[in-house]
Amino acid sequence: MKLSSRLDTIKNKVIAHYDHIWDCCCDHGQLGVALLSSQPKSVIHFVDVVDELMVDLESQLQKHASAIQSQWQVHCMDVAKLPLIKGKKNLIIIAGVGGDLLIELVRSIQTRNSDIELEFILCPVLHNYMVRCELIEMGFGLISETLVKENKRFYEVLHMSNQAEKPITPVGDDMWNLSDSDHQEYLKKTISHYQRMEANPNNLAKVSCLYEGLIMKRNS
Questions:
Q1: Following DSSP, what letter does each residue of 133-178 receive, concatenated?
Q2: Which one of 68, 78, 91, 197 is separated from 84 by 20 to 30 angstroms, measured CA to CA?
Q3: Which residues contact 50 (CB under 8 A, 6 or more apart)?
Q4: Taking the complete model, does pTM exceed 0.85, yes or no?
Q5: Degrees (nearest 5) of the Cα angle 17, 138, 77?
Q6: What is the DSSP string of 54-81?
Q7: What are the TM regions of this chain, as residue ranges (predicted)?
Q8: pLDDT of residue 199
């Protein structure tokens, strides 16, 4: 099964060994299935709150179980209540959900597991600036970040943990290549978006200036 550019970018960030990988809000499980092959020594957990999807996915996995060497488990549950395995290395992947919900899930997982290492790969749909600010507030550090374009839409993929020492920045740093036309397009659209929002007199935050600073930094 060929992955989309977004899911392939996420999969390629899973380089280190993890005892447990949690593919959250996994929909039809395409990413998790790919990880079964690329991470055969990990237990791959498929997690979604939609019962019908999980029943169908478990049926498909069982049908091909003889060809699957990796261990896997299917969970129909609230991602906020993940049963993380303490004493083991866990990677939590959350993609394809809005920024507000994503932060709600990360904050709940952090609250329930404040005494263990937490490592995430996140790919929010919209509200990337807000997500980054919330992650900074929660004390997470950056492992890597990538900007990816898929079907004329842009996504920011953040790999971070509560042990990483490199700071997350509100507008991104490592992901930008402003000699790339796609990156220029995304930056232009982002600046325009925040300029429209800032036209509201009740909105005092000048987020667009932070993104414009990336251009000034490049040109300096």
A1: HHHHHTT-EEEEEEEEEETTEEEEEEEEESS--EEP-TT-STT--T
A2: 68
A3: 76
A4: yes
A5: 60
A6: HHHHHHHHHHTGGG--SEEEEEES-GGG
A7: none
A8: 83
Output DSSP code: residue 208: H
The span from the CA of 175 to the CA of 156, in Å, is 8
**CB of 76 closer than 8 Å to CB of 48:** yes
Annotate 88-136 with DSSP letters as a single string: S-EEEEEEEEEHHHHHHHHHHHHHHTTTS--EEEEEEES-HHHHHHHHH
**pLDDT at residue 1, as a whole number:** 67
Helix (H, G, I), strand (E, B) or coil at 20: strand
CA distances from 125 to 11, 99, 185, 201 (A): 17, 6, 17, 26
Number of other CB atoms surrounding residue 207 within 10 Å = 20
| pLDDT, block means (10 residues), the chain with 220 residues | 92 97 91 93 95 93 78 95 95 96 98 96 96 98 98 97 97 96 97 88 77 84
- Tell the residue number behind the tokens 């600036």, with chain if given: 129
Q: Which letter, b or e, does each residue of 85-115 get, where b requires 16 or more Cβ atoms within 10 Å of its Cβ?
A: eeeeebbbbbbbbebebbbebbeebeeebee
Quick check: 20 and 90 in contact, CB under 8 A? yes
DSSP code for 1: -
- Asked if 80 and 103 count as a contact pair (C-beta separation under 8 A), the reply is no
Cα–Cα dist 213/144, whole Å? 21
